[in-house]
Amino acid sequence: MHDKDIATPSRTRALLNQYGFNFKKSLGQNFLIDVNIIHRIIDASGIDVTTGVIEIGPGMGSLTEQLAKKAKHVLAFEIDQRLIPVLKDTLSPYPNVTVINEDILKANVSEAMQTHLSECEKIMVVANLPYYITTPILLRLLEQDLNIDGYVVMMQKEVGERLNAQVGSKAYGSLSIVTQYYTKTSKVLTVPKTVFMPPPNVDSIVVKLMKRQSPLVEVKNEQAFFKMAKGGV
C-alpha cells in the first residue's frame, strides 16, 4: 500500500506526471488535495462498515480511498476513460471498491446498487460532484426514488445555497423545492479554491441531504410535480 494519501499536492502531481494526464475543462475536473477536508466530509456522512457508498467522479481516487477505509463497499462512477487505469492503480489495495466507467446520467444506478450494494444496511452518496452537472445528477437520483438514505456532496457554493435556501429568500427556487421535498438539507462546510488541483473559478460548499421518512408535503402526482419544478431549475 502506498504510504502517502492521494489527496496531497505531491502525490497528485506525481500521478499526473506518471500517467501524462491533462485536465479536461469540459468535464469540470478539479481534484481534491487536502485530506483534512476529505475527513470532514466523511465524518459528516456518518458512514461505517455497514454502509454502501456511491461516489460520482472519483478522479484519481483521493476521496475514494478514504471512503474505502470506512465503508463496506464503494461504488464509483467515472465518465473519463483515461482515469480508469489510474484508479485501478491507486485503489488496488481496496477490494471493496468497484469503479464503473459510465456517465452517471445514463447509468442504470438501481441495477448497479442491486449488484454491488445489496448487502449494505444503508446507502449514502458521498462525492465531489462535477460542478457543470450537479443539478442534473441530484434531480436524477432523487427522481428515481432509489434506496439512498442521504447525500454528503461538494458543489459550487451558489448551487449549494439554492439547495439549502429558506422560503422567501432570494436563493429559494425550483431546486430548493425539489430537494427539500425529499430531503432535509444542511450546510456542512465552505471549501476554499486552494484545496483543489487545478483551483476552480468558484468557491465550493459541502451540503448534507438526508432522506425524509415521508415527503415534506403530499403530492398526488410526483411526475407532474417534478416536471413542473424542473422547468424552473
From TrEMBL:
It comes from the Bacteria. GO terms for molecular function: 16S rRNA (adenine(1518)-N(6)/adenine(1519)-N(6))-dimethyltransferase activity; 23S rRNA (adenine(2085)-N(6))-dimethyltransferase activity; RNA binding. The keyword Oxidoreductase does not apply. It holds the Pfam family RrnaAD. Its EC number is 2.1.1.182. It catalyses: adenosine(2085) in 23S rRNA + 2 S-adenosyl-L-methionine = N(6)-dimethyladenosine(2085) in 23S rRNA + 2 S-adenosyl-L-homocysteine + 2 H(+); adenosine(1518)/adenosine(1519) in 16S rRNA + 4 S-adenosyl-L-methionine = N(6)-dimethyladenosine(1518)/N(6)-dimethyladenosine(1519) in 16S rRNA + 4 S-adenosyl-L-homocysteine + 4 H(+). Keywords: Cytoplasm, Methyltransferase, RNA-binding, rRNA processing, S-adenosyl-L-methionine, Transferase. Residues 37-213 form the Ribosomal RNA adenine methylase transferase N-terminal domain. S-adenosyl-L-methionine binds at residues 30, 32, 57, 78, 103, 128. It is found in: Cytoplasm. One of its GO terms (cellular component) is cytosol. InterPro entries: KsgA/Erm, rRNA_Ade_Mease_Trfase_CS, rRNA_Ade_methylase_Trfase_N, rRNA_adenine_dimethylase, SAM-dependent_MTases_sf. This protein produces a dimethylation of the adenine residue at position 2085 in 23S rRNA, resulting in reduced affinity between ribosomes and macrolide-lincosamide-streptogramin B antibiotics. PANTHER family: DIMETHYLADENOSINE TRANSFERASE (PTHR11727), DIMETHYLADENOSINE TRANSFERASE-RELATED (PTHR11727:SF7). Belongs to the class I-like SAM-binding methyltransferase superfamily. rRNA adenine N(6)-methyltransferase family. RsmA subfamily. This is Ribosomal RNA small subunit methyltransferase A. It comes from Staphylococcus schleiferi.
